[in-house]
C-alpha cells in the first residue's frame, strides 16, 4: 500500500504542516532576537518543511508523474534554501557577532521536541512514492538540525565564540543540499520511468 493510500496519512501531514510552519515562525523570531545564524537556518528548515508538506497534501490525488514533478520542485526548493543559508553564513563570518546561547538552546530544545513529534506521526508513512519520501526527509532533517542547534548553543556558551553557531549553520545547509540531491535524483528517475 502506498503512503498516500494509507489511513491517517493526510491527517499526519496536516499535523506536520501545523507543527512545522507554526514553530518555524516562532524560531525565526527567536533567531533574529538571539542573532543566531543556526536558529535562522533551522527556522527556514521548519518553514520549508511546512510548505513542502502542504504541497504534498495538495498533490495526494494527482497522477504519479505530477507528484514526481512536485517532488522535483521540492528538492530544488530545498537546495535553494541550502545555498541561501551558506551565503548568509559566509556573510556572518565577516560580522562574527556572538549569538545568545541561552535563547539558542531553549528554542533548539523545543524545536527538537516538535520535530520528534512530527517524525513520530510520519514514521508509518515514510515509504512510498518520491513525494512521501521527500516529506520524510524534510522532517528527518529538522530533527537533526535541532540536535545540532542545541549542541551549538552549548558550544557558544562554553567557548564564548560565534564559530559553533556558524559551523552548525553550514551543517544544516549541507543537510539541505544532500537531501535536495536525493529528492531530485529520485524524482528525475520517477519521471524517466513515467515517460519512458
Gyration radius (Cα, Å) is: 17 Å
Which spans have pLDDT < 50 for at least 5 consecutive residues? none
Total number of beta strands: 0
Overall tally of domains: 1
Query: What is the count of helical runs?
Result: 6
Share of helical residues? over 70%
Fraction in beta strands: under 5%
* Average pLDDT taken over every residue: 80
Roughly how many Å apart are the termini? 24 Å
What is the CATH fold-level name? Alpha-lytic protease prodomain-like
Largest sheet: none
CATH class: Mainly Alpha
Description:
The model has no long low-confidence stretch (mean pLDDT about 80). This protein has 6 helices and no strands. The chain has helices at about 10-35, 35-60, 65-95, 100-120, 130-160, 165-195. It has about 200 residues and is an all-alpha fold. It is globular.
Draw up the topology in text.
Layout: H1 9-34, H2 37-58, H3 64-95, H4 101-122, H5 130-159, H6 163-195
Helix pairs in contact: 1-2, 1-4, 2-3, 2-5, 2-6, 3-6, 4-5, 5-6
Would you kindly provide a brief summary of this structure?
The chain is an all-alpha fold. Helices cover 84% and strands 0% of the residues. It is globular, with a radius of gyration of 17 Å.
Describe this protein with a few key phrases.
196 residues, mainly alpha, Alpha-lytic protease prodomain-like, 6 helices
